[in-house]
Amino acid sequence: MLDKVLLCDGETCSTGVKELRKALQQKAIHSNGNHHKSNGHTKGRKSRQPKKDVVDLMTLLSHCAQAVATDDRVSAIELLKQLRRHSSVNGDANQRLAHYFSDGLEARLAGTGSQIYQSFTIMPVASTDILKAYQLYLAACPFKKISDFFSNQTILDAAQKVNTVHIIDFGIYYGFQWPCLIQRLSKQPGGAPKLRITGIDLPQPGFRPAERIEDTGVRLADYARTFKVPFEFKAIAARWESVKVEELNIKRDELLVVNSLYRFKTVMDESVVVESPRDIVLKTIRKMNPDVFIHGVVNGSYNMPFFVTRFREAVFHFSAIFDMLEINVPKEDADRQVLEKAVFAREAINAISCEGLDRVERPETYKKWQARNRRAGFKQLPINPEIMKKAREKVRSCYHKDFIIDEDNGWLLQGWKGRILFALSTWRPSYRVQ
């Protein structure tokens, strides 16, 4: 199953993902077609569900957030009751979003946001379910697939005629990005270089804090043996800001790549800690003198200090994601529910219900990251036109017409129906330290 999902067929896509995408597109048309025709906006057409429900859910959420913000518990509880009656994890996109956002508001009101968020970690989803949800995500939308292609192609372009490639991956998680790179490195003219990966991620609770990272290393070593790529893996389970350059065993004669896709949003910023952990990590990366730093960010504004503003921005962001899934995945798909709950609902609930150090979901816009990276001593590299061309072709030929892929000021942008959700860029130190 791993092979079917993670390995390449050509440059950007596995056979399993291609097959699933075609099946989803057919099923989504039949499953959601009638729903979309009757869901809202055609005058004079009768529907079993009142047309105003969609508007009411968003209005109810807004009013409930206002009540929670002012500690008007009576109004908040009554509004939550109404939201519960009209929302469902099995409903349309707005009903699902309202269900999970209600969970967040209820947790904030009760002061249990941190416990609920931690429960996602204590009772993790099975790896097989995560893999199936990951495959669904790859098939339904181009966001992850294009991100991996952008990163891997950048590494391959830089790895011509080198003996060793050392990738330091901040936020490696399951390492799903790397089997395809290993496969493509094995086809390099003149033979594959040695690949070193240092996988960094937060420690897990329990007696084996590095267990998941170590398991990732074992999986990747198996792929490296299969494709005859010399391989070395090091697992580091630690808070990112505590990682020191000295423990990374960087060698002068290797191509050094630092990779971090969409996980920097969970590193604290200066609004929580005076000496910003984000800036500490960026300065550590700067000290490494990488040949290239590949940075993918969630383009979000739901990191505001004021709750109601943050809540509204979170609604805008996650509405786009839930709508994208609604259009591209059948309502009854079980893997869609895993994806919505284990990934997106988890993030939204944390942003809504937690404060201080407990609120770990803190995205910034790509323009703010651009300024932050420059302050840390990086200069931005231009996007490779060939990578941009292939990414555009892939999105336009394989995915729904409402997906966005664009370029702005050195960033590759991805989104849905006018909202930019993700951004990618490449950097290197503005000057080299010998």
Any overview of this molecule?
- By secondary structure, the chain is of the alpha/beta class.
- The protein contains 15 helices and nine strands.
- The protein has helices at residues 2-6, 15-38, 53-69, 73-86, 93-110, 113-122, 127-140, 143-158, 178-185, 211-226, 277-287, 307-328, 334-353, 366-375, 385-398; strands spanning 164-170, 194-201, 231-237, 255-261, 292-298, 378-381, 403-408, 411-416, 419-429.
- Strands 1, 2, 3, 4, 5, 6, 7, 8 and 9 form a nine-stranded mixed sheet that branches.
- A hairpin with a 2-residue loop joins strand 8 (411-416) and strand 9 (419-429).
- Helix 6 runs antiparallel to helix 13.
- The longest helix has 24 residues, at 15-38.
- It starts with a helix and ends in a 5-residue tail after the last strand.
Short précis:
With 434 residues, the protein is of the alpha/beta class. The protein is 50% helix and 15% strand. About 5% of the residues have low confidence.
Per DSSP, the total helix count is 15
Mean pLDDT: 90
| Shape designation | globular
Helix content: 40-55%
Gyration radius (Cα, Å) is 22 Å
User: What about the largest sheet?
Assistant: 9 strands, mixed
- Structural class assignment: alpha/beta
Strand content: 5-15%
The oligomeric state is single chain
